[in-house]
Write a structure and sequence with these properties.
alpha+beta, 2 domains, 3 helices, 38% helix
């Protein structure tokens, strides 16, 4: 890195840190119980700024859905959101989407129980039960209810079998 780029990178890093702190403080005061900590995600490089913005938002939504469940992953429901784009040296754009994931309304369905496959490893048996639970929740109630991270009252009942394998039952209320 050349000496002339170092101050610019330092300024950008300082501004970014200040933005994160500002979002954290603002989100905590306004959000209440239905919001999570601010999340940021870079998009891919594109020659068109609009595509770069869309990429950053899409990746933000995916990251939030994986981490917190689909109910919190909608960019339009995020509080204090921002999409910062920068033109690169090769004339492409790269954007950074940052926002506080929030859910407007949660609804839950009745408790769903699903057994997993038999495994010698207890964690694999739990993962199998969770995966089957998610599939069954999607079949019964739709994709928006199929995320284990969004479920309420979730737990497992695992039992070691006579042949030293484990089988688990995933139990939870599907919520959006």
């Amino acid at each position: 890195m050349t000496a002339s780029l170092r101050p610019a990178r330092l300024i950008a890093t300082t501004l970014f840190t200040a933005l994160i702190i500002s979002l954290s403080l603002t989100a905590g005061a306004k959000a209440g119980k239905i919001c999570k900590q601010p999340t940021g995600e870079y998009g891919m490089y594109y020659y068109k700024k609009a595509k770069a913005k869309s990429s950053a938002i899409g990746r933000w939504e995916k990251k939030v859905a994986i981490k917190h469940g689909i109910g919190l992953s909608f960019w339009n429901n995020a509080k204090v959101r921002s999409n910062i784009c920068k033109k690169q040296a090769n004339n492409t754009y790269r954007c950074f989407a940052i926002g506080t994931p929030c859910q407007i309304k949660t609804s839950c369905k009745p408790v769903l129980k699903k057994h997993g496959m038999y495994y010698f490893n207890k964690q694999k048996a739990k993962d199998s039960a969770k995966g089957r639970w998610e599939k069954q929740a999607a079949i019964n109630h739709g994709v928006k209810y199929s995320f284990w991270n969004s479920a309420k009252k979730k737990h497992y009942k695992c039992k070691k079998q006579d042949n030293n394998t484990w089988r688990c039952l995933a139990i939870a209320r599907p919520c959006n």
